[in-house]
Amino acid sequence: MPVQVQGEVLSMRKVGAYHAMTVVAPGMAELTRPGHFLAVQVGGPESSMLLRRAFAIYDVKARGVYGGTVEFIFSVHGKGTAWLAARRPQDKLDLVGPLGQPFKLPTHPATAMLVGGGYGSAPLLPLAATLRQRGCRVDFVLGAASADRLFGQLDAKRIATSIEVTTDDGSMGRRGRVSDVLPALLDRSGSEVVYACGPMAMLKAVTEISSERQIPCQVAVEEAMACGIGVCMTCVLPVIGDDGQTRMVRSCVEGPVFLGDRVRWDDVGTLPPDVVGSLNAVGDSHR
Q1: Please, how many CA atoms are within 13 Å of residue 220, restricted to the half-sphere of its CB?
Q2: 238: exposed, middle or buried (C-beta count within 10 Å: 0-12, 13-18, 19+)?
Q3: Angle at 157 between CA 77 and CA 213, to 5 degrees
Q4: Mean of the per-residue pLDDT values for the chain?
Q5: Distances (CA, A) of 252 to 37, 201, 226, 257
Q6: 192 near 110, Cβ under 8 Å?
Q7: For residues 85 and 76, what is the distance between their CA atoms, to the nearest angstrom?
Q8: 3-state secondary structure of 11
Q9: What distances in angstroms separate CA 40 from CA 23, 29, 61, 64, 83, one per listed residue?
Q10: Cβ atoms of residues 56 and 32 within 8 Å
């Protein structure tokens, strides 16, 4: 079960185009697994910004001088994240976490390819460390629009057997996208499983490339999450279940990690007519 804590900001630093915030959050770090996220109240107690902001958990320390800590990465997109970027050490934050479903780990040592886009690589770094502890080989592909929007390449170099970097503008690594280099890397490494986190278009491309090679692919989706606990239904997307039926599932509860080939990428943001519970699907079942 997640916990709600009044955390204290321990540190705040800039990492390229992003902010990295570490918060003292006793009881949360011990429960966190790679792929979990947390939800942060923004704006302060007097704010009209009622909805929390969700962020993937990048790092945790269950013990230390200050107690358990969690670290997350974010960029400024609006008033909520701008307020968060202005916090300083010793400021208080209301946090709920860990939330969502984490990545599933291989039952035996395997060769894993981890694909991150922008600061979507944040949850992949603790995953990589966990995989290595289990005797897995880890390879990385990290991509972003530009060099300042890459995240975690130095950490990835310390953990991974190999790392490939791409940027849209060619300011670091190869010019292009992760999907341009991924096919050859999968073939060369003999990857047995793929993990990915980043923009939805990237996740779709990674899923398609993995499926062509019949490699299982887990993706952590980046859907807007208003409540983080499955109440508001703003983060739903169409996912195919074990029974072959499509349902609109909540990214914050059933996800954010899904099997890539179960997500109907072309229908994200829509309500497919055959989804369970839709008027069309109900009508078809009575014909």
Answers
A1: 29
A2: buried
A3: 85
A4: 92
A5: 9, 19, 9, 9
A6: yes
A7: 7
A8: strand
A9: 11, 15, 18, 22, 11
A10: no
CA neighbours closer than 13 Å in the CB half-sphere of residue 96: 15
The answer to whether the beta carbons of residues 178 and 150 sit under 8 Å apart is no
User: Do residues 121 and 142 make contact, with C-beta atoms less than 8 angstroms apart?
Assistant: yes
| Tokens at 203, concatenated | 């996740």
How is residue 99 written in tokens? 């939330």
Confidence band (pLDDT; 50, 70, 90) for 67?
confident
Establish whether the linkage from the previous residue to 273 is cis, with ω within 30° of 0: no
For residues 31-43, average pLDDT: 94
Type of residue at 59: D
Angle separating helix axes 200-212 and 178-189, nearest 10 degrees: 30
Band of the pLDDT at 279, cuts 50, 70, 90? low
Per-residue DSSP letter, 106: P
Tokens of 136: 């897995």
Q: Can you say whether residue 265 is alpha, beta or left, with left for phi > 0 and alpha for psi between -120 and 50 degrees?
A: alpha
Residues 6 or more apart whose Cβ sits within 8 Å of residue 160: 114, 128, 138, 139, 140
Q: How far is CA 254 from CA 16, 232, 247, in A?
A: 32, 14, 11
Q: Which two tokens stand for residue 178?
A: 């992760």
Structural domains in the chain plus CATH codes: 3-99 (2.40.30.10), 111-264 (3.40.50.80)
Distance in angstroms (rounded) separating the CA atoms of residues 251 and 101: 9
Full DSSP string of 87-102: --TT-EEEEEEEESB-
